[in-house]
Amino acid sequence: MDLNEIIKLGAQLFSQTNDKTAGLGQNQVVAALSQLLGGDPDGNGIDLAGLVAGLNGAGLAEIAMSWLGDGDNQPIDSEQLSQLFSSDQLSGFAQQLGIEQEEAQQGLSTVLPTILDKASQGGSLLGSDAGPSGILGAISKLFGRS
């Protein structure tokens, strides 16, 4: 599965998170997700490594490790999303979709773990140049794990 397919899957999942997001078109959600994740509206240039770095910088490295690893994904809540993205980013994302920020954050808390999980295998991220140990290995070193 390539990154564009993963973003489309994320958009589809986002549209299924609640009643407010059910009427959103896939292209609209793909564009909003892509821009939030540093790409263009077509889903190109998404920076998943930057997302992982942002999780780490926000003190959420354990969550990132669970998403990248092969086990269960830890959840992320609205407060943690606010640590990862600025309020301007979150409100802009919600406005782009024409929904309340609460609904946007609910959708993101479902979609982000899935996107990173599908974009990684054994700790290596699609398109990443993190080397043989992958991003999961780099994050593990922050915690003194090998």
Give your account of this protein's structure.
This is DUF937 domain-containing protein. Pfam families: YidB. InterPro entries: YidB, YidB-like. The protein is mainly alpha-helical. It is built from 8 helices and 2 strands. The protein is globular. The chain has a single domain, classed as Orthogonal Bundle (Arc Repressor Mutant, subunit A), CATH 1.10.10. The C terminus is likely disordered. Helix 1 packs antiparallel against helix 7 and helix 4 runs antiparallel to helix 8. A hairpin with a 2-residue loop joins strand 1 and strand 2. Strands 1-2 form a two-stranded antiparallel sheet.
**Count of structural domains:** 1
Q: Enumerate how many helices there are, as a single number.
A: 8
Low-confidence stretches: 128-146
* β-strand amount: under 5%
Helix content: 55-70%
CATH level 1 class label: Mainly Alpha
Question: What is the CATH-assigned architecture?
Answer: Orthogonal Bundle
Rg, rounded, reads: 14 Å
Please tell me what the overall shape is.
globular
CATH homologous superfamily label: YidB-like
SSE ordering: HHHHHHHEEH
Indicate the CATH topology.
Arc Repressor Mutant, subunit A
Our measurement of the CA-to-CA distance between the termini, rounded to an integer number of angstroms, reads 28 Å
Order of strands, widest sheet: 1-2
InterPro entries: YidB, YidB-like
Protein name: DUF937 domain-containing protein
Organism: Ferrimonas pelagia
